[in-house]
């Protein structure tokens, strides 16, 4: 019987990476992974807040650490399935120990909300780490009822899980084997994927698309040249970039890749014999239908049509205006004096 | 020879460079940045997947910081092109926290209003505005505001993808607000005060 873990899902798990959350919930019971979600967690700031202001960025992250420590009941492990969330939580905890004045500043801020956090009082770990090293490959293998025999999978980790790895939890910074071993345990044919920890472009799809498209092209093209049927990720951002921007990347480079990108928990669920539709299959934009057919699994029909009701006035749904902000923004091509 | 001496004598006194810049950047970086330890080996640029789009390699940028070239360093697009992949960080023989130094430089550039293109600072600020308002990120609001302002011509290409994300319930069209938004706002307000006085 395993201990229970504190779960920090992160914003993506409730939107773009719903398939990740659905499949995680579906497999958790099978491997006796007990997760209790942090009550009223907030966004970790992704890679954005750190580039604006230091103390607020770390205070934002640390509210989650404070809530998790408060809620921890005999456990000290926080699990994050998202790479950026995992790194931000781990980074805050590590830097507040390395540089105590940062911890003091953050705690001054937290006090304004009646909270506090003692750096180092939690272990921050990524989901893959907990599955491989706590639940264990033997347990995972013992639950496989439908081995993924014959499915050629490209194991893709991206950047922020294996690096910078403050606590030295992974077998290597640049070519770790944990995901490969897990996929092997599921019976899949794991390709030697040379780019497994290369970058997916992160937020560059939003700010410098050409930078991002080139990184996406390298990854998809490498997986394709290794004849992968499917690529699997451990991060919502990686999935989003490689799946949702694959068509724009194809347009830019005049290629016609159709590489399905799914979360590793979805493949675990398939191997455990769960129904593909309960694992979020069908939510990917590049369909995994052919890959699933190769192992004799029927791909669920397209996800049901949106339930969003059109607004009465017929206008497009737009976000409410935000309060004015202090930052001065110069025109796109102008240089500020 | 004489000419050179004359030239030197008539040249205006050399500008005292901003020798505190390196220390300032290091001080403002989370953790112990070790920026002062850079030995200019260039492993960072050689490891960088997006270096081709940078106007200075990280190594050059750090030399500029050491030389006190404040304006040129803050104007560099390098921190904005950094994808936070941490390849340079784990390969740096001096263990400089390079990615975190890049975050510091972005913050300093925004503060000094020094950047060539507002797309990236705008994106970060809009993201942060949403988080400060709701406590959660709000991709739909962020994407619509950002694309309309910075990439209107990209919208036709983006439309099928956006519709796909919406119809597959992968993008919420209304934001989620955390219960403790008041608490979070109080924390962030105090954090900004602490930041201003430290």
Write the layout of secondary structure elements.
The complex is a heterodimer of chains A (337) and B (198).
Chain A: E1 4-7, H1 18-28, E2 34-37, H2 54-71, E3 77-80, H3 83-98, H4 100-111, E4 123-126, H5 127-142, E5 152-156, H6 178-185, E6 189-190, H7 204-207, H8 209-225, E7 230-233, H9 236-244, H10 246-253, E8 261-263, H11 264-271, H12 289-294
Parallel strand pairs in A: 1-2, 1-3, 3-4, 5-6, 5-7, 7-8
Helix pairs in contact in A: 1-11, 2-3, 2-4, 3-4, 5-6, 8-10
Chain B: H1 2-10, H2 21-27, H3 43-47, H4 58-66, H5 70-75, H6 78-81, H7 87-91, H8 98-111, H9 119-134, H10 139-150, H11 155-167, H12 181-197
Helix pairs in contact in B: 9-10
Task: Explain this structure.
The complex is a heterodimer of chains A (337) and B (198). Chain A is an alpha/beta fold and 337 residues long. Chain A is built from twelve helices and eight strands. Chain A folds into two domains: 4-126, Glutathione S-transferase Yfyf (Class Pi), Chain A, domain 2; 137-294, Rossmann fold. In chain A, β1, α1 and β2 (34-37) form a beta-alpha-beta unit. With 198 residues, chain B is mostly helical. Chain B has twelve helices and no strands. Chain B has two domains: 10-111, Fumarate Reductase Iron-sulfur Protein, Chain B, domain 2 (Orthogonal Bundle), CATH 1.10.1060; 119-197, no CATH class. Chain B has helices spanning 2-10, 21-27, 43-47, 58-66, 70-75, 78-81, 87-91, 98-111, 119-134, 139-150, 155-167, 181-197. Chain B is 59% helix and 0% strand. Chains A and B meet through α2, α3, α4, α7 and α8 of A and α6, α7, α8, α9 and α10 of B.
